[in-house]
């Protein structure tokens, strides 16, 4: 038994001892060791690490529900957590929507563990930064290299008791020339997969290729979105589109059974097939398993935690966030399936990979977009999003990258951009770009889309 | 062992391990949050966290380490670890890092608090929150939500230069949101969403019950309101939206770490050029933006920042000229400035970094009533719904919850989905009327840094008018 599972079990027992056997209790124990080496102006300027243990408790008693957490995990701290949680119960209104505790169920996956990543040293992260900086050959660089080690456990008074451990590594950096930034970004379950020299070289190539950009008029353009930009689409689909709580409230675009996407689009949440911290159960103890939300263009489902599932008359899909009931369930490992038969082409210039180059090669006139920035939802129901391009845009004419282009602002409905007939090509190489919050593993290939609505240039 | 002892032990261990400077923050934070939805309590959470974070400077490299354990051995181990991490930074060095001088200080500070928010009975708070949603539902909202949040934070700071400071922050606030859902879109109206370094009087002073019916009715009316027209017009912003405008297009732009490129890969840089500090026109002569962490009760207030610099006020923009930045001791040293005082951390487990404190407008000569009366053709917008701005803090597009047409000096019909877009300095230079009716708004969710940190910032703001603004951008 892991130390975290032992701790979770002790807290469940303490609740029963102090509140009686009628109390329903669930306990989540997280131990996270996060280390992040950050560089700017081509030097390491921030270098941080922390090791934190936290216990989150939820108690349902006499029809009422109260939650709480602490990082003070000695006996006194845990007792205080349990006592104040129980004491709060009679002071709160009844909770008629309480969905009950997760039943006992075995894990479907066992997390993602790489000992070398978990035990990575500051020197190993610094070495990758050194390689990134050197590969940029004198360009100004900035970014980070991160390793995360997580071990945790969940126990409840209904008999569910699961534990797991996982590791994650990520590197995200830019290289800069005046007026142009280039980016390279990659997440993995293994630090060994992150080659600072490869990433730094790619970022520098993009930066140089973006120099002396021209400003094009706003309007609708055909686009190829690289995986770094596709991740933003997946983020917004996960947060707003496939959020079961928003769907219950009729604030999601998702219509189960409807052909809302192009047949080339299949979206699956799968913790085993993406990077990001691979926690094998959700915040309510429900084991994670692959869940398909869009199958060949047909919307087939949304994500549920236990409460939103009960409201919808179904079961949890394993997407509950600890303490995240007010926002609702989020599929944190959403993956756009690549086209396994997609062609590749020789990479010339700033294209991310051969699949991206192949998507460009048949484009008559359009834009190659590396990255999106500061995207915000104007209306969750239609998922109209505004944001900007970042880190490299190029004009493509007759299958060739011809000119770098200055950044655009866009205002675009994301589901409509991937609607029936709108997807002109899906790349064959799905990657997980590094996620700044070490929470998500959004993963996808490059995409060629018929139209993207650019509403202004970055200069106005 | 006191909390000061734990911090001092961490600092000493870092020095023993080779640091030439070190500081440590022991923090203990209790938080409470409650949300209600459609007549029922949705979530109540009472949380606690405590630990020590140590910052060490070895050569020109920084290291930081944090643990949730304030025992002497744990604190010492954290200090040693911070110095070791700092040493690793030397393999990819930055130019020699200095710290501008700061006299050693000892002191205590507490935020004003009339009613301890954690002592208010949970039953009273729950009755308030649930009742608000019931009222909104009764007045037409499809989705009625309310919430409050409370933070009670104690900090003990020790540095190797002799600082020994303790502070206690009690912060709280809350708000309500009514959403009405139509066939093709949803409309939202909210009220409150206001926070400060104050006690529960902050929430009671908002009069949430007195506004619940109004926001529900407005959210329903928005579904059938005319869409915001597209074009260029005079734009009047309410003070709540002005707070967001200041935060995004001034506050972040004047962060010295961004100007120096320290945030280039993520949050971004700034369009501001240090060589033009003191001479560049940021906005019209009506624009006076102060950096002032001394405002009683504002969310960005403190006695000392997280480097031990005492709170003091200075201008960022004076009569339209850019004259000041938000700085820390190291960034000020790099920039050749002689002031700091704007460094804060999101808890004991995060590295202190340059942050907004209270960044806001000084009062103007007009009133909102006068601004509307003197506008022949324009749009009045308020309450932010969406916000997006580029990585240099120049190009922004903001959406508001509600707008009204202004014709011949009078408020006309309601407008739905109002948006406006612009370029920071052009926009601020077009400000031709500014109200004296200042409210110190608080924003409790400012994201910055890697690992991510959430900051609490304050923004005194008043209604203002801008000319020739592009509005009505749609997808």
Word description of this protein:
The complex is a heterodimer of chains A (460) and B (475). Chain A has 460 residues and is an alpha+beta fold. Chain A folds into two domains: 3-209, PmbA/TldD fold (2-Layer Sandwich); 219-457, no CATH class. Chain A has ten helices and 17 strands. A six-stranded antiparallel beta sheet of chain A has the order 3-2-1-4-5-6. A five-stranded mixed barrel of chain A has the order 7-12-13-15-17. In chain A, strands 10-9-8-11 form a four-stranded antiparallel beta sheet, with helices on one face. In chain A, a hairpin with a 2-residue loop joins strand 2 and strand 3 (64-70). In chain A, helix 1 packs across helix 2 (75-88) and helix 4 (122-135) runs parallel beside helix 5. The longest helix of chain A is centred in the N-terminal third of the chain and has 17 residues, at 3-19. Chain A is globular. Chain B is α+β, with helices and mostly antiparallel strands and 475 residues long. Chain B has two domains: 3-224, PmbA/TldD superfamily (PmbA/TldD fold, 2-Layer Sandwich); 227-471, no CATH class. Chain B is globular and about 70 Å long. Chain B is built from ten helices and 23 strands. At the A-B interface, strand 1, strand 2, strand 3, helix 2 and helix 4 of A face strand 2, strand 3, helix 2, helix 3 and strand 16 of B. Strand 2 (43-61) of chain A pairs parallel with strand 3 of chain B, so a sheet runs across the interface.
Number of strands of chain A: 17
Can you count the helices of chain B?
A: 10
Q: Looking across the biggest beta sheet of chain A, what order are the strands in? A: 3-2-1-4-5-6
> What would you call the quaternary organization?
heterodimer
The largest sheet of chain B, given as strand count, sense and whether it forms a barrel, is:
7 strands, mixed
């Amino acid at each position: 038994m892991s130390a975290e599972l032992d701790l979770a079990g002790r807290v469940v027992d303490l609740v029963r001892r102090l509140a009686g056997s009628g109390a329903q209790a669930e306990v989540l124990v997280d131990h996270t060791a996060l280390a992040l080496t950050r560089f700017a102006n081509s030097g390491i300027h921030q270098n941080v690490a922390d090791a934190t243990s936290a216990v989150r408790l939820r108690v349902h008693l006499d029809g009422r529900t109260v939650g709480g957490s602490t990082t003070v995990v000695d006996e006194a701290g845990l007792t205080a957590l349990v006592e104040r949680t129980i004491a709060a119960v009679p002071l709160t209104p009844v909770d008629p929507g309480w969905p009950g505790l997760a039943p006992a169920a075995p894990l479907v996956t066992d997390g993602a563990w790489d000992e070398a990543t978990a035990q990575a040293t500051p020197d190993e992260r610094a070495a990758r930064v050194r390689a990134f900086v050197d590969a940029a050959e004198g360009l100004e660089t900035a970014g980070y290299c991160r390793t995360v080690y997580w071990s945790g456990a969940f126990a409840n008074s209904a008999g569910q008791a699961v534990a797991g451990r996982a590791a994650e590594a990520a590197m995200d950096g830019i290289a800069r020339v005046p007026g142009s930034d280039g980016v390279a970004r990659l997440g993995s379950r293994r630090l060994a997969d992150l080659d600072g020299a490869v990433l730094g070289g790619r970022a520098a190539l993009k930066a140089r290729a973006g120099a002396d950009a021209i400003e094009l008029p706003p309007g609708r353009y055909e686009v190829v979105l690289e995986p770094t930009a596709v991740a933003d689409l997946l983020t917004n689909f996960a947060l707003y589109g496939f959020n079961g709580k928003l769907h219950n409230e009729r604030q999601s675009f998702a219509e189960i059974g409807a052909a809302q996407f192009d047949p080339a689009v299949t979206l699956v949440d799968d913790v085993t097939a993406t990077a990001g911290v691979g926690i094998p159960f959700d915040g309510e103890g429900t084991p994670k398993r692959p869940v398909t939300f869009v199958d060949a263009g047909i919307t087939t489902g949304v994500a549920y935690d236990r409460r939103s599932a009960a409201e919808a008359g179904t079961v949890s899909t394993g997407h509950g966030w600890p303490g995240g009931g007010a926002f609702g369930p989020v599929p944190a490992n959403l993956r756009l399936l690549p086209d396994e038969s997609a062609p590749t082409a020789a990479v010339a210039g700033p294209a991310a990979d051969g699949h991206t180059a192949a998507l460009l090669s048949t484009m008559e006139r359009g834009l190659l977009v590396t990255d999106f920035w500061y995207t915000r939802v104007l209306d969750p129901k239609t998922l109209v999003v505004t944001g900007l391009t970042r880190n490299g845009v190029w004009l493509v004419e007759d299958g060739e990258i011809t000119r770098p282009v200055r950044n655009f602002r866009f205002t675009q409905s994301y589901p409509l951009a991937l609607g029936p007939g709108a997807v002109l090509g899906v790349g064959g190489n799905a990657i997980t770009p590094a996620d700044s919050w070490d929470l998500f593993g959004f993963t996808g290939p490059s995409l060629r889309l018929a139209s993207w609505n650019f509403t202004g240039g970055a200069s106005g | 062992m006191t909390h000061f002892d734990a911090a001092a032990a961490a600092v000493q261990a870092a020095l023993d391990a080779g640091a030439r400077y070190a500081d440590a923050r022991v923090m203990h934070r209790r938080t409470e949050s409650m949300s209600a939805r459609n007549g029922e309590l949705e979530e109540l959470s009472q949380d606690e966290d405590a630990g020590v974070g140590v910052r060490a400077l070895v050569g020109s490299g920084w290291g930081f380490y944090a643990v949730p354990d304030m025992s002497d051995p744990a604190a010492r181990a954290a200090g040693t670890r911070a110095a070791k991490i700092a040493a690793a930074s030397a393999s990819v060095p930055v130019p020699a890092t200095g710290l501008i001088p700061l006299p050693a200080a000892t002191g205590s500070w507490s935020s004003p608090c009339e009613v301890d928010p954690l002592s208010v009975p949970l039953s009273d708070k729950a009755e308030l929150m649930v009742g608000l949603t019931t009222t909104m539902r009764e007045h037409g909202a499809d989705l009625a939500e309310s919430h409050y949040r409370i933070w009670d934070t104690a900090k003990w700071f020790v540095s190797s230069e002799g600082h020994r400071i303790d502070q206690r922050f009690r912060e709280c606030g809350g708000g309500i949101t009514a959403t009405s859902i139509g066939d093709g879109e949803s409309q939202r109206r909210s009220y409150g969403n206001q926070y400060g370094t104050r006690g529960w009087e902050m929430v009671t002073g908002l009069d949430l019950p007195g506004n619940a019916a109004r926001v529900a009715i407005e959210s329903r009316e928005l579904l059938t309101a005319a869409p915001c027209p597209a074009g260029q017009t005079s734009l009047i912003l309410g003070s709540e939206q002005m707070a967001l405008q200041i935060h995004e297009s001034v506050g972040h732009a004047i962060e010295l770490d961004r100007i120096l490129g320290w945030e280039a890969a993520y949050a971004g840089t700034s369009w501001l050029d240090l060589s033009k500090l003191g001479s560049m026109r940021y906005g019209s002569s009506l624009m006076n933006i102060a950096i002032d962490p001394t405002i009683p009760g504002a969310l960005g207030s403190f006695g000392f920042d997280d480097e031990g610099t005492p709170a003091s006020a200075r201008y960022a923009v004076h009569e339209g000229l850019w004259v000041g930045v938000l700085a820390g001791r190291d960034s000020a040293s790099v920039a050749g400035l002689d002031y700091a005082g704007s460094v804060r951390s999101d808890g004991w487990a995060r590295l202190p970094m340059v942050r907004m404190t209270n960044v806001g407008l000084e009062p103007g000569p007009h009133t909102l009533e006068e601004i509307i009366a003197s506008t022949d053709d324009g749009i009045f917008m308020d309450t932010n719904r969406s916000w997006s701005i580029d990585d240099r803090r120049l190009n922004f597009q903001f959406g508001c919850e509600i707008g009204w047409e202004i014709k011949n000096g009078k408020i006309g019909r309601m407008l739905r989905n109002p948006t406006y877009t612009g370029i920071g300095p052009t926009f601020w230079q077009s400000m031709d009327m500014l109200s004296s009716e200042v409210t110190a708004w608080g924003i409790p969710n400012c994201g910055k840094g890697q690992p991510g940190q959430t900051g609490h910032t304050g923004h005194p703001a008043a209604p203002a008018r801008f000319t020739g603004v592009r509005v009505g951008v749609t997808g």
